[in-house]
Amino acid sequence: MVVEGVEGVGYDEVVEIETPGGDMKRGQVLEVERGRAVIQVFGGSTGIDTAETSVRFTGSTVKFPVSMDLLGRVFNGRGEPIDGGPQIIPEEEADIHGAPINPTARDYPTDFIQTGISTIDGMNSITRGQKLPIFSGSGLPHNEMAAQIARQATVRGKEEEFAVVFCAMGITHEEASFFRKDFEQTGAFERLVMFLNLANDPAIERILTPRIALTAAEYLAFTQEMHVLVILTDMTNYGEALREIAAAREEVPSRRGYPGYLYTDLATIYERAGRITEKGGSITPLPILTMPNDDITHPIPDLTGYITEGQLVMDRELHRKGIYPPINVLPSLSRLMKDGIGPEKTREDHSGVSNQLYSAYAEGRDVRALVEVVGEEALSERDRRYLEFADKFENKFVNQGVNENRDLEQTLEIGWGLLAELPEEELKRIDPEHLKKYHPKYQ
């Protein structure tokens, strides 16, 4: 809606709208020029009359009430409770745009988080405070994996306050119902805060939802000193909403119609992660995005990869084979893994096993591509071993149950079991001391 005759109004200011029927709606200022304000109405513009509707500018941006009562609650994309419970009695009302962390106060992420998923813990380990997105595709089981990580994520060997903030943007009623049921049935709800923005909710609300979720995470992490895992799904829907609003404002489009500030906007979400020195808490975001047409060069995954510290890439070919979770370890990467594993953090052989598995699987995939050209009969004995290794790696290491929670020792044991089938002289990436200590032949 456009309101004329206004002055002293600011960008992003919250607006209260009273309809002729007495309904109260809220909105946000999108644009201001020459005594005119363009307002995006939350919850749709039904019932608004140009003659009798009254508008009040509040003079402040969107704020969200925070307290420890957030845990175990479900909110909509505007931060209103939708679980039938009472309103939150706030300890404070926090600005949803947050405050930037002073770069000198940032603490380097080095603490390993165990997710119970072998391809993540063994090959692409997450550390507390790291930004690690999951690149998925339409129809791949990223929702199941997000729910599994939310249920299983723990910090090894420490009984610390751990919470999960789950933020869904533009999902269907069916998906929202799946997440709620899953968390209720598995008992994960007590340490969880859920924000659900559905596909039929307004686009502007989708812009607010991740910021409200991160405001809740910042309170839990930096005020209550809890370790918070933030799952953001689906960032592609967020980008589409941003494009829709930019088009409505008649902004000059950039690559594929997205606004030129897409990189900056995504950074305002991802960079709210991290740890602060002298504070016990941390925020570790796992953004999930579905790549349109499985295109990793699409602007949203492309820019996300620049901002974050690695990526987990889901593979349609693995999914077709019935492998869950279908994470392809070859294009996947965790840039902070080296700082979160090793003696006193995970296990001394972790790095060597990970590197050797990666190398052997990459070689096995190359042989698989060769077979399509020359046939299996033309392969040498060594090539056959690596071909067999690639199949076993996918079926034993990558493949696991939706409710299977593997600790790191089990993951490394499976890895050693696979490597034991290769000749010992081929295991060049593992320290000889670790080979003698952990190789099944010497047990």
Automatic annotation (TrEMBL):
The ATPase F1/V1/A1 complex alpha/beta subunit nucleotide-binding domain covers 116-334
Start and end residues of each ATPase F1/V1/A1 complex alpha/beta subunit N-terminal domain: 2-59
| Tagged with keyword Transport | yes
Tell me where in this chain the ATP synthase A/B type C-terminal domain is found.
339-438
Q: Which CDD domains match?
A: ATP-synt_V_A-type_beta_C, ATP-synt_V_A-type_beta_N, V_A-ATPase_B
- Superkingdom in the source lineage: Archaea
- Name the predominant localization: membrane
Is DNA-binding found in the keyword set?
A: no
Recorded GO molecular functions are:
ATP binding; hydrolase activity; proton-transporting ATP synthase activity, rotational mechanism
**Where does the UniProt annotation locate this protein?**
Cell membrane
* Key words of the record: ATP synthesis, Cell membrane, Hydrogen ion transport, Hydrolase, Ion transport, Membrane, Transport
What GO CC annotations are associated with the protein? plasma membrane
| NCBIfam families in the record | PRK04196.1 (NF003235)
What this chain does, per the entry, is described as:
Component of the A-type ATP synthase that produces ATP from ADP in the presence of a proton gradient across the membrane. The B chain is a regulatory subunit.
The entry's protein name is A-type ATP synthase subunit B
Q: Which gene encodes it?
A: atpB
